[in-house]
């Protein structure tokens, strides 16, 4: 049950505190000089960028806006450079209003020429050239509208470039390499059909193909403009490099307006950035007109900043005016002239009207609009239903989406008559379902961890702080189509398989030839020998592949159940941290795990279950060096399955089966079958994984794996992959697919045991119906990759913003370390006491020679022959220890949690990886310049002492660790706040079905569009055959006629 009864005042206070705390967490970049170039004649496009720049100016940055639309009144720190632009769009828009063709293929060249001409005029205006000669900037913001060549201003001002687009993502704005996901995400011009049918996907593929052709056409125009404004002989990079060097793309859209899609970290949605949280005051006359509308209310008519109502065809205008005369409501109309002929008495007109403020007025009942994305966003935000009269571009699809969502109706401009429009208007006004539906959409649209403006400001400042943030660069932006689609890798694999096949065929022929020359006994022997040779070749090939793969703020409280059936305490720590955070926010949480908290926490209930002891396995890891053996991995998998099975069978857990929970969190470590608890409790399911994305976790929500660009977690690495690295990654992806299939097969029987098929959905359906996946990683720890909205990085979730007090003896030991402290820990599973004696002696001998004190997590009573500078404890609060300023070095096995804590606290690492992804974790720390590694096999006093002494003596590691710490900490929200927001979001929205990605329900052939490609090829083949038959028929007719003529 949900706790209710909180007063309105308490809710407002809680929200205010959360909002202020969020702002404090965001922080500010140092005051920076920012230039924005927005060369367009469309005022509505500029409004979002103006809102962003005004907020940046308010925060102390010095901003310069180059556009045709200066602010109406001056603003501190905000400078307008006014460059008038010939309104080349007017003739095109006027033609629309007169009922002319709205075919985008015909209109696009005209719009492109107008947009490029406006941009070129701006770049060559004396006002801009003066800026270029005399000033420097820390960041350039480019307002995009078919003008990519303007991106050269980043190099002109020697600063990072950010692109702002006033709509949703498309191929035209894909400067950072974000995947298009053609099979699952409809193009902006098609509308948001979710899910798409087969023929929708065919249409989507064709539209994307046309877009590619348009981009090729555009490129020629853009290249000419770019080279004239940014010539290579003056040191400017090539046009393609300028496009690839975009640091960030801001999109004025939100996933609730479209189909959820994967985004890279540097492609950020800021939908509604132009909307004021607190509406600005209106002119007195307008305010009085709206206030006096009474119970009947008012209607707002606007066709945007480009389309002029006065240019409308007379019969259409008369239809609207006749409809208005029959209304009881008052009407506000954005009219671009001083007077309106035959204006009805209930109409207020204005050349420019504050649309956002008007839509926010409580008396507004309906918005009649052309369906521009900005207008749709504002209408949704303020909960106002619409009647859409779309004209061109994405307006048809925007309005169609509104109709599908049930908060508006559409009227075709070509078919517009007074009865048709009047019927639509009256239906929306009289039927309360439209207002109720849009108010529900408004709640969804507003429900975000940060507001659009705060998000935009944070990321702008982030790019400035990190000088372009090159760590956000996605490898896919540098790959061509063949590489992205892995066609070169497929060709290589097929070539290798072909060679193997030919080898086997040649051997088989040789066997056959030998048989023809020998007697039967010799044939049999030769056959046996040859077949063994064939078997050897096949086995050798399999071994090669396997070896290559191996190388390769809450207003209601919820009742939340978390089950974390893991034998590894370090994994469970992450779940415990999240649940403590949720409990602190007032939620009633229950944790089922093998590990109990050290002290009770309010609102936090524990069910402690048994676990499989990993002692012998971890001893083998250390003593026999079997960390990455197949047997070790299989044993680890079996132990997790058995631990989960024991948890499900535990009597204390069984007692929970009849309780009510609003949400189930599954602490994930290769155990899927417990996901059945979601449907059992009729509650949404959230998966929490203590590492980065894998095939197993990606499958829960359908997140793309990006095999061609992102190394698998067991491959590691942060740089660009070369061809062989991509081959290795591809093979490992295949290995992951096999492991995933085996895992699902094995666990199906466990699922059916606890969740019988006659009462529960299938295992496959349960795995696909996960609402949210939380990953305990951060993009600064690995390669930037695309994520869906419901796959969220919360790296460092277990790290406390303010460390807990240390036990007194440990604190005194650390405080008194004149030369600093070395912290030694091999994690929660590996025990230092299990180290072979030779390796233990080497470590102790090294420590005895150090000036530094040593704090050692040692699980037994004491360390034999420990030097006096060593203090050992069976348990240590690692996060709090690493937060102490005297800790100079962390000697670790390289677990992801420990690496995150070391990064956060800026402590260099000496890695001794033992198994699994620990090798890759340490290697990435080495690549960042904050770590060294000692190979466990070769660990002796010489290798260990050398590494320890280098790291405690050379300051470069500590200096670099502080830089990496700043990067890791720099986020719009803390990991805990972000995780709690999304958990609460899923609970609030009952599983948040709006986050569901259509690609999650597709098979391989559909996701890769292979069925669509096959269909299109079949069509092309059929067309080819028809043409061939027609030509043959014509040829025969002509030839036959010719022969008859000759005979005559």
From TrEMBL:
Residues 1-31 form the signal peptide. The chain crosses the membrane at residues 481-501, 533-555, 1012-1035. Keywords: Glycosyltransferase, Membrane, Signal, Transferase, Transmembrane, Transmembrane helix. GO terms for molecular function: UDP-glycosyltransferase activity. The keyword Oxidoreductase does not apply. CDD domains: GT1_Gtf-like. InterPro entries: UDP-glycosyltransferase (IPR050271), UDP_glucos_trans (IPR002213), UDP_glycos_trans_CS (IPR035595). SUPFAM superfamilies: UDP-Glycosyltransferase/glycogen phosphorylase. The keyword Transmembrane helix applies. It holds the Pfam family UDPGT. Belongs to the UDP-glycosyltransferase family. This is Uncharacterized protein.
């Amino acid at each position: 049950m949900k706790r209710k009864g909180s007063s309105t005042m308490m809710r407002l206070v809680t929200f205010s505190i959360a909002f202020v705390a969020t702002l404090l967490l965001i922080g500010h970049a140092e005051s920076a000089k920012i230039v924005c170039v927005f060369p367009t004649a469309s005022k509505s496009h500029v409004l979002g960028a103006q809102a962003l720049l005004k907020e940046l100016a308010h925060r102390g940055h010095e901003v310069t806006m180059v556009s045709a639309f200066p602010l109406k009144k001056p603003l501190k720190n905000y400078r307008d450079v006014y460059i008038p632009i010939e309104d080349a769009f007017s003739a095109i828009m006027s033609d629309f209003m007169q009922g002319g063709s709205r075919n985008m293929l015909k209109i696009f060249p005209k719009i492109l020429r107008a947009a490029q001409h406006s941009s070129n005029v701006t770049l060559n205006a004396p006002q801009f050239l003066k800026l270029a000669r005399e000033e420097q900037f820390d960041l350039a913001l480019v307002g995009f509208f078919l003008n990519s060549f303007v991106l050269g201003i980043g190099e002109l001002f020697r600063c990072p470039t950010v692109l702002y687009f006033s709509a949703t993502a498309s191929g035209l704005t894909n400067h950072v390499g974000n995947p298009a996901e053609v099979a699952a995400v409809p193009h902006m011009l098609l509308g948001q059909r979710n899910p798409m049918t087969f023929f929708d996907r065919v249409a989507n593929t064709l539209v994307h193909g046309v877009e590619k052709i348009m981009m090729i056409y555009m490129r020629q125009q853009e290249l000419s403009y770019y080279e004239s404004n940014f010539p290579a002989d003056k040191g400017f990079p090539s046009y393609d490099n300028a496009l690839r060097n975009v640091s960030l793309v801001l999109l004025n859209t939100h996933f609730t307006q479209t189909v959820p899609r994967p985004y890279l970290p540097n492609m950020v949605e800021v939908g509604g950035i132009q909307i004021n949280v607190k509406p600005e005051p209106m002119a007195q006359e307008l305010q009085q007109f709206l206030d006096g509308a009474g119970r009947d209310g008012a209607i707002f008519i606007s066709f945007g900043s480009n389309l002029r109502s006065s240019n409308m065809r007379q019969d259409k205008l008369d239809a609207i005016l006749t409809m208005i005369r029959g209304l009881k409501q008052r009407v506000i109309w954005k009219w671009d002239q001083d007077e309106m002929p035959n204006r009805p008495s209930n109409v207020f007109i204005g050349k420019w009207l504050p649309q956002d403020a008007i839509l926010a007025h409580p008396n507004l009942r309906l918005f009649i609009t052309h369906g521009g994305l900005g207008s749709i966003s504002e209408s949704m935000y303020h909960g106002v239903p619409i009647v859409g009269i779309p004209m061109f571009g994405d307006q048809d699809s925007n309005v169609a989406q509104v109709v599908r969502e049930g908060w508006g109706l559409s009227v075709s401009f070509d078919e517009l008559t007074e009865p048709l429009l009047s019927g639509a208007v009256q239906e929306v006004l009289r039927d309360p379902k439209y207002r109720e539906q849009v108010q529900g959409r408004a709640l969804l649209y507003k429900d975000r961890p940060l507001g659009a403006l705060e998000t935009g400001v944070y990321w702008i400042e982030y790019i400035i702080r990190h000088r372009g943030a090159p760590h956000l660069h996605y490898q896919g932006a540098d790959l061509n189509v063949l590489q992205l689609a892995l066609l070169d890798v497929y060709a290589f694999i097929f070539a290798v398989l072909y060679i193997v096949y030919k080898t086997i065929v040649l051997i088989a022929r040789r066997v056959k030839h030998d048989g023809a020359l020998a007697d039967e006994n010799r044939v049999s022997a030769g056959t046996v020998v040859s077949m063994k040779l064939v078997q050897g070749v096949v086995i050798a090939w399999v071994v090669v592949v396997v070896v290559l793969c191996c190388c390769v703020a809450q207003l209601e409280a919820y009742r939340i159940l978390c089950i974390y059936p893991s034998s590894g305490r370090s994994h469970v720590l992450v779940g415990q941290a999240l649940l403590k955070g949720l409990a602190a926010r007032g939620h009633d949480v229950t944790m089922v795990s093998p590990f109990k908290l050290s002290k009770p926490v309010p609102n936090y209930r524990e069910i402690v279950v048994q676990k499989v002891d990993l002692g012998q396995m971890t001893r083998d890891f250390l003593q026999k060096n079997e960390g990455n053996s197949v047997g070790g991995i299989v044993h680890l998998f079996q132990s997790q399955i058995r631990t989960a099975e024991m948890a499900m069978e535990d009597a204390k857990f069984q007692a929970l089966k009849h309780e009510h929970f609003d949400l189930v969190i599954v602490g994930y470590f290769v155990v899927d079958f417990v996901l059945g608890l979601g449907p059992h409790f009729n509650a949404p399911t959230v998966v929490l994984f203590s590492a980065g994305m894998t095939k197993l976790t990606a499958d829960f929500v359908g997140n793309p794996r990006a095999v061609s660009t992102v190394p698998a977690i067991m491959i590691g690495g942060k740089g660009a992959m070369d061809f062989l690295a991509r081959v290795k990654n591809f093979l490992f992806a295949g290995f992951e697919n096999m492991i995933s299939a085996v895992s699902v097969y094995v666990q199906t029987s466990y699922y059916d045991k606890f969740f019988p098929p006659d009462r529960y959905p299938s295992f496959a359906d349960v795995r696909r119906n996960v609402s949210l996946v939380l990953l305990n990683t951060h993009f600064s720890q690995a390669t930037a990759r695309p994520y869906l909205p419901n796959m969220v990085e919360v790296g460092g979730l277990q790290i406390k913003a303010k460390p807990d007090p240390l036990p007194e003896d440990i604190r005194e030991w650390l405080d008194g370390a004149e030369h600093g402290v070395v912290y030694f820990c091999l994690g929660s599973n590996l025990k230092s006491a299990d180290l072979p004696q030779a390796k233990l002696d080497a470590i102790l001998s090294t420590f005895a020679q150090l000036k530094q004190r040593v704090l050692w997590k040692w699980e037994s009573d004491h360390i034999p022959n420990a030097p006096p500078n060593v203090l050992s404890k069976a348990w240590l609060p690692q996060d709090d220890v690493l937060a102490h300023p005297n800790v100079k070095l962390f000697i670790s096995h390289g677990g992801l949690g420990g690496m995150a804590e070391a990064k956060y606290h800026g402590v260099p690492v000496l890695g001794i990886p033992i198994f699994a992804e620990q090798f890759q974790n340490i290697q990435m720390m080495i690549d960042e310049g904050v770590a060294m590694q000692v190979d466990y096999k070769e660990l002796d006093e010489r290798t260990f002492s050398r590494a320890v002494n280098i790291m405690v003596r050379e300051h470069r590691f500590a200096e670099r660790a502080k830089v990496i710490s700043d990067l890791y900490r720099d986020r719009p929200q803390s990991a805990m706040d972000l995780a709690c927001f999304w958990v609460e979001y899923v609970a609030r929205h009952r599983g948040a079905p709006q986050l569901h990605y259509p690609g999650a329900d597709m098979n391989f052939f559909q996701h890769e569009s292979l069925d669509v490609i096959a269909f299109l090829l079949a069509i092309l083949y059929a067309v080819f055959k028809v043409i061939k038959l027609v030509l043959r028929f014509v040829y025969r007719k002509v030839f036959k006629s010719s022969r008859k003529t000759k005979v005559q």
